[in-house]
Amino acid sequence: MSNRRQRRQSLVKPTRRPSARRRKPAQGGRRRAQPSFREALRGANSRAWRRSHQPSVQQAIAASHAGDLTEDFIVRHLWLRRFLAIFVLLPISIITTYSFFGIVGTADLEFWLETEFWHFALGFILWIGLFTTQTLRQWWLYLYVLGHELTHAIFIIASFGRIGEISISSEGGYVQTTKTSLLIALSPYFVPFWTVVLLSIYTLAAWIWSLPPMPRGVLVAMGFTWGFHLIWTIWMIPKDQPDLRENGVLFSLLFVYLINLGVILGLLSLASAIQPTVFVDQWLETLAQGRDALLGLARWLKRSLV
């Protein structure tokens, strides 16, 4: 194992406080325009990247293997990820998505009318409102970075890696480690850290004090924390995240999408909104339909070219 240490970073918005001094207007008598939130976000990531000397994609892959790897091996490794993304993960994502909407559309109507579902949805809607109005945005952003980097750290420890340093702030964060892997890099994008923390605390409290199963307040908090994870993840993904580039952007996005879709299916299954066996049957039926469509297309192309 190489001893080179890597830093995994989160892309976040920088904190800028207005200066007490007035700046002179630029030439032409106009003040310099303030950067948009998107531009500021990209600028923060670039500065954090330079400060931490983030290794390139090739270096990150090389550091996760024993010995000195050749550039040819690294290039083949990346091309293998692209091949798997296009010919394996992409078809699976399409089939799973089609099956998901097909099975959700036939779910029992009573589930969508239950108070438990609407309490969970209420928490989700509350977070949407806070996010869109930018209420306490810097504070929420710090919590997101904290959860993101702690998730990296937990998966590093679970993979028997060593942590050298952790940096967390509203301007960015990183975990310095001697180990990297697919799960270490992408875990914050499919593990709702604060939802897991909430459920862990409630489970422990329920075991000690015999609390009732899932009271309304806990359901609202679950919806809020899961919405917090989902919305921030969707917002951050397009912002040039180093974690995604390490294993190839397309491969990473499809992998994260499938895991998150699996989490949603698991929650619906636990809530008895759908039956796992019914979903599997739907998935296999969709796979057969896709196969028949591809065979029909292949026969049509063969007749057209001959």
Describe the overall structure.
The chain has a three-stranded antiparallel β-sheet with strand order 1-3-2, sandwiched between helices. Helix 3 (71-105) runs parallel beside helix 11. The chain has helices spanning 37-52, 57-63, 71-105, 109-113, 115-133, 137-158, 182-186, 193-209, 216-236, 242-246, 249-270, 276-305, and strands spanning 6-10, 163-169, 172-177. A hairpin with a 2-residue loop joins strand 2 (163-169) and strand 3 (172-177). It has 306 residues and is mainly alpha-helical. Residues 12-32 and 48-69 have low confidence and may be disordered. It is built from twelve helices and three strands; from the N terminus they run βααααααββαααααα.
Fold topology:
Elements: E1 6-10, H1 37-52, H2 57-63, H3 71-105, H4 109-113, H5 115-133, H6 137-158, E2 163-169, E3 172-177, H7 182-186, H8 193-209, H9 216-236, H10 242-246, H11 249-270, H12 276-305
Antiparallel strand pairs: 1-3, 2-3
Helix pairs in contact: 3-11, 3-12, 5-9, 8-9
User: Mean of the pLDDT scores?
Assistant: 78
Instruction: Provide the low-confidence segments as ranges.
Output: 12-32, 48-69
Reading side by side through the largest sheet, how are the strands ordered? 1-3-2
| Helical amount | 55-70%
Number of helices: 12
